Amino acid sequence: MESVGRAAQKMIEEVRRQFREIPGLREGVPGVEGEYAKCVDISTDAALKEMLIPGALAVVLPLVIGFVSVQALGGFLAGALVTGFLLAIYMSNSGGAWDNAKKYIEAGHFGGKGSDAHKAAVVGDTIGDPFKDTSGPAMNILIKVMTVVSLVFAPAML
């Protein structure tokens, strides 16, 4: 989630820079366009850089644990499966709940838009969207990577 926040902050800074420096962009003058390629570069660079350490851990940890003890690797994978599955469900569901709470308030409940409840719901949705869209699904991928690495290198560990 911190990775998503850092990437989003870089993107915000770039969009603000473009609004400041490109004449007519802010006003929506026909024919004036932003530098979309720069935004795509920021997003791609952030995604690749932020995934280096977690990706390396997902590959290296099962290997190290497997070469120490196959039984320990079994325990590690079982623990990763149980906790990762529960965490993924929690993140996906809670992120969706925060998102739906904001929509519910915007529909006129609890004071509607502009109320204190709406301001709080916007903050909750800021956390909920990365939970629902990135962190929850990423847990499933993490479990699969660790399991596949363990299966591929299992003959060397036995």
Q: What would your notes on this structure say?
A:
By secondary structure, the chain is an all-alpha fold. The chain has one domain (2-157). Helices cover 84% and strands 0% of the residues. It is built from four helices and no strands. The protein has helices at 2-21, 36-68, 70-106, 116-157. Helix 2 (36-68) runs antiparallel to helix 3. The longest helix has 42 residues, at 116-157. It is flat, with a radius of gyration of 22 Å. The two termini are 37 Å apart. The relative contact order is 0.12.
Write the layout of secondary structure elements.
Elements: H1 2-21, H2 36-68, H3 70-106, H4 116-157
Helix pairs in contact: 1-2, 2-3, 2-4, 3-4
Mean pLDDT: 90
Give the N-to-C terminal Cα separation.
37 Å
Low-confidence parts lasting 5 or more residues at pLDDT below 50?
none
Residue share in helix: over 70%
Counting DSSP H or I runs of 4 or more residues, the number of helices is 4
What's the story with the biggest beta sheet? Answer: none
Order of helices and strands: HHHH
> Assembly type of the shown chains?
single chain
The overall strand count is 0
> What class do helices, strands and sheet pairing give?
mainly alpha
> What gyration radius follows from the Cα positions, in whole Å?
22 Å
Kindly estimate the percentage of residues that lie in beta strands according to DSSP: under 5%
Number of domains: 1
Taken from the alpha-carbon principal axes, the silhouette is flat
